[in-house]
Amino acid sequence: MRNMTNLEYSFLVAELAPLVTGKHFDRIRKISDGIYRIKIANLEILCELGVRIHLTKYIEPTEQTDKFVEKVAKELDNAKLREIRQVNRDRIILFDFDTAQLVFEMFGDGNAILVKDGVTVVATKYESWTGREIKPNQPYSPPKNVPAEKLELTDKYVIVSLMKLPLGKDYVAEALIRSKIEEKKPGSSLSESERKKLEQELVKIKSEVQPVVFYENQKVIDFGLALFSKYSKFTVQKFKSLGEAADEYFSKVEKPNPKLEKLLSRLEKQQERLQILMEEEKEFKTQGDLVYANYAKIDALLQLAKAGKFDELAKFKLDKKEKSLELVF
């Protein structure tokens, strides 16, 4: 089972907006830990923190509750929804009612926060970071780190730069496949034609969206907004909306072992971090090899500098104020 991405949340908000804007909050239910269902008018919206938000036709009976549910029910009773929007192109969905705001932060393990007059009223969990905290009676603000607005290629793997865009791994990987570019190719080494092709495919993926669900031997495998190449041999079913596709997928996909899923999620994050570190190691090794290969020259220059013979160093880019010397080999 996978989590919804930035692109999918953006599409979902566009789907939900005309259906729920101007309608009234009816109720909120706790299905289980981290899973809530809210009703706006006659529409049921399921939220599994950190995983998914979408309309659902599967209504599970429940008698569970918690302080978050009780407070939200009280503050939003019959409140009118003014707007639903995605915050900063990130995995944050905000339901703006006329009495308060219900914010779903869908990254990491997820969180749900009730905000009134810019201040946190209640949340499913309280957290604190440098420059940001989620605590009762404290101002609420979304994370400062936001997805990139445009593609900026560097010496690191091209997939690393693409992951900074508000799309999701499956979508950027698909763009690379369609562009015939290897994920681990340094971004700065892309030719002009490769870069142009990649940008074209990224635009296509965002504009030519089609909600689908993939099946293998009648078993649900995945869903998305694109015909992923990795599922080219699988059965594909198109849906009228992403909400329907997501509801189909999450209702039928094999539910993972929570402990195993947590370990796999941690492993995926570690692999992504390892990929970045490997790139940095490669860069530092190149710098180290350059210094080693020119050690004699560097040592001679250092001796001149220590002796104060700056006139002999004049042919180099010497910054006495910053006490730095730029060498070009």
From TrEMBL:
Residues 257-287 form a coiled coil. One of its GO terms (cellular component) is RQC complex. It holds the Pfam family NFACT_N. One of its GO terms (biological process) is rescue of stalled ribosome. GO terms for molecular function: ribosomal large subunit binding; tRNA binding. Keywords: Coiled coil. This is Fibronectin-binding domain-containing protein. It comes from Candidatus Bilamarchaeum dharawalense.
